[in-house]
Amino acid sequence: MQRHRSGGRGAAVRFRTAGLGLLAAYLLLVGWITLRPLDVPWVSAANLHPLAGIRADLALGWREAARRIGEGLALLAPLGVLLPLAGGRPHASTWGSLMRTVAAGALISLGIELLQTGVPGRVVDVDALLLNTVGVALAHLAVVPAARARLRRRSARPPRPAEEPSQGPTPTIPRVGIAP
Description:
By secondary structure, the protein is mainly α. It has one domain. The chain has six helices and no strands. The radius of gyration is 26 Å and the shape is elongated.
């Protein structure tokens, strides 16, 4: 009995399942990091002016600015890979996938910022929203197109022979003409 390998369909289901599990775990981690109350003696005012916080970080020096901006970029950057992985569509359009992923990342970041308004010690920062969204886009552009191209090449290859030993050539039946 020959075993047939499941084609790209089985692989897509496995990728989607793994992506959904990793995405759920990552979102729980991000929620725990960003929505815990802080014990601080005072809280700065909310930053509702785009790029004002980044300018303030740059005024502190390049090391401190690089650390703070890097943290903002890195917080939600894994979503740039996990969201398309959870979608499980290796033949999706590059630009369409980028737009969907960036929009979802921006909405998740906005949701986090809005939820932080009710958490003691946390304030809304529009620059965090911008940096998180740019981080999602950069991670998506750096990983997803190359990974999808590799998956497409793998699925285009002819399947390898089965691991079971061959049972010989397929028997043929000689054709018999129609009787008069």
